[in-house]
Amino acid sequence: MARRAAVRTVQRRARGPVPQAKVPIRVKINGVEYSHEVEPRLLLVHYIRDVVGLTGTHIGCDTSNCGACTVLMKGTWGNEWRAVKSCTLYAVQADGAEIITIEGLAKNGELHPLQKAFWEHHALQCGYCTPGMILAALGFLKLNPNPTREEIRKGISGNLCRCTGYVNIVKAIEAAAKEIREKGSWI
Amino acid sequence: MTAQRAVGAPVARRDAFEKAVGAAKYASDLFLDDMLWVAVLRSKYPHARIRRIDTSKAESHPNVVAVFTHRDVPVNRYGLFKKDRPVLCDDKVRYIGDPIALVAAETREDALEALKLIEVDYEPLPPVTDPIEAMRPDAPKVHDDGNICREVHLRLGDVDGAFARADVIVENTYRTGAQIHAYLETEAGISYMEDGKIVVVAGGQSPYRDRAEIAHALNLPEEMIRVVTPYVGGAFGGKDDITVQIHLALVTWKTGRPARLVWSREESMMAGTKRHPAIIKIRTAATRDGTILANKIEIVLDKGAYTALGPAVLDVAVENCNGPYRVQASQIDAYLVYTNNMVASAFRGFGAPQVIFAIERQMDLLAKKLGMDPLELRLKNALRKGDRYVFGNVLEGSVGIAQCLEVARSHPLWRSRGRNSCEWPWLRRGVGVAAAMKGYTIGALPDKGVVALELLRDGRVLVKGSFTEIGQGVIQAVAQIAADLLGVSVDDVEVVFADTEVTPDTSVTSASRQLFLAGNAVREAVEALRERVAELEGRLSGRRPARVEFSGGWVFIDSERRYSLQELARLLESTGLGRQVLGVYEVPRVEPLPGTLEIPHLFYMFGVTLAEVLVNLLTGEVTVSKVVSIVDAGRVINPITFTGQVEGAVAQGIGFALMEDAKIRDGYLLTRDLSTYLIPSSKDVPEIEVIPVETEEAEGPFGAKGIGEIGIISVAPAILNAVADATGVEPNAIPLTHERLYWLLKEHGLVEQLRRAST
Known about the structure:
- The complex is a heterodimer.
- Chain A has helices spanning 2-14, 44-51, 113-120, 130-143, 149-155, 167-183; strands at 23-29, 32-38, 70-74, 82-85, 98-100.
- In chain A, helix 3 (113-120) packs antiparallel against helix 6.
- Chain A folds into 2 domains: 23-104, Ubiquitin-like (UB roll), CATH 3.10.20; 113-183, DNA polymerase, domain 1, CATH 1.10.150.120.
- Chain A is 36% helix and 14% strand.
- The N and C termini of chain A lie far apart (58 Å).
- In chain B, helix 11 (374-381) packs antiparallel against helix 12.
- The longest helix of chain B has 28 residues, at 514-541.
- Classes of the chains: A alpha+beta, B alpha+beta.
């Protein structure tokens, strides 16, 4: 019996691709509700970029090493905001969740302290890693609002930058942390 | 006076704002309606004959629109120095990333699925993957005309006499690895038809050159193709050659539909270019007092499968292999050798990091043999302005190497050298120094840049040039230069870049020379505008003015009359003279030395790196704990951009020295992603101190000189010299991974010594 089943699978493969049933999902991104039917194999990062059209979230590696796709998310694992690499999830796993991407950080035309600090401290060159770096830093600052430079270096070590040598990134995060503490609101 | 207000000021970059809010669009961020997803079938073998390609199954896939092979390419060879690279392979594949077929499908998944349906019948051939082996006459041939792509043999001065007179002779062989660019944005682009033209929007470094390559391959006039380079997510030389451009243009030309092609990271690692791996043998003759008499140098660069920019890289290696020293005689034999490894081409430093690694390790070994301080040895031999370099060229540009070395000598880090012990017996501290040089501009090759300067109707200024923004900040720097020359605020200068339809050809963005070139072209454009104003005044008043000055948003004519720039724009338009002028700058050069392409340069960059390391004798782990980068910077246009560039270069240098180990076995790349090919993270890069030694480059815009590459060049030798200082072991190959150093330490009995001491 088992043998026959195996043969059947091979035959189906040979006829061409297996159409995947689409699954409905609802996700709130930057305060906006989206509902789409997506293939189960669709990665969250592709959903955010290709389907929703928020291309500030980038893809750098395909193996979850670079962190360019980092977003903030809550609702999938408990109700706390946390930074996640959106290439490590399927879109269907985000069903019912809330997400913040780089496009959702500025409020009423005012830059988030991290955005302002990255701009002013020259913490970016090509800028491709920047959105992920900022959101990873934000997730980290939520856990550790008053970090040392050494702790910042550890906190963002899951995100790669090839241009800056990290010196100004660390400075920017340090400056933003101070401003966030003074403001009393991290987001 | 508003003159020189923006130049020299640490102005936050305009593009950085867009990038920080996620609004900047890179090529990989562009999606078009009705767009085809393109995927590339790549060679499975490092060397094989193609017997047959069967695309019928892929073509019958329901969502596949077209499949392309070499039969669809009008002129199937491209390349800048030699047209030897197939757009899609026909007779043979020569490395594992070689492209064989393209699939254009309705979705990404369909395209990837269809790739698996293409059948290629290969006849595997024996690969040649060691450049020394490839030079043997009986080696398998990568190309029909043999494996030596290019060779240079120079005999400069009385080498034999120098060696006969020498008190000491030092000889060593050095090796460097195949560093991968690993920019965060992989090679990416889109294409579409517009007004009968093929438009390609892709990450690149030179839109005009890419356009010429596309036109050649498709056998179309250049005017039928428009190339746009948006913000690029890192390049470092890796996007200097064609990547996605011809494939995209082919798909859009044949199907009429928009297309998108973004390489996966694995594809980027395999099919993207690399830094040429090098084997360098140096024999140095010196006198007892540390005067270098001569170097005999043999350089072998592993070209990989195709020529790409290799010939120029070989020239840069040859030009800089004697280091920034007054060497009286040199014999240089250099070979660029084809293998079935991945293609090597431009990478920040362009041949200089390899040879400077070698000569700077050699300097430390010579110092050791002479019993001299390595910094004093360098200073004793350092080049000075006005010196005749080994090629007979007189160094008339700025030569700041001695100043850089003097700064290093008095730096606390250097003065702390010699304190090798740490609180734990298995940790050793070391400090190393290394110097660097590299010509910037493209040397004896002709090089001309054009920018357009348009006075807008509202009095603001628009600068247009084909320079590309690859993260280096050229747009901001150009705006700062234009602002100061025209006496306006930097916010009143708009910059449009890198579009063959709207920007004139500012030549290629490479060789640390785009600011130099574009900045000088802007200066020429301002002169042209001054001339235009004089002509206008001649028409209006019948008398040509003697002086035209721009200041504070006004143009002053013979201190008699002034117009606001807005009024000037209106007058230029109404008189038909036009609001746009061109600035043309041709880089001064000399005729190349016989047998070379671009030696010598007229302009050189110099720098010195100090590195402090901690070596764990039990594991071979090297921690770089401090780096000081001292750069002969000319005049710094934007200090924060400048230090940022140098810091980034240092980080790449740390990777080159210790971490970035592209494992290639029999032509197969084993490290195909960022989890196996490690680039420095925030935990691997220490605090970096950047010290500009501001000299004056008389020819540069506001005295500025190129700085993009210099920061990386002496990092690896400084780190290895520090490791040698810490341990007494002399490693001469990079990357010096934990494992390699561990075995070296063991070989030298250090591990055993430690074990004995602890029992």
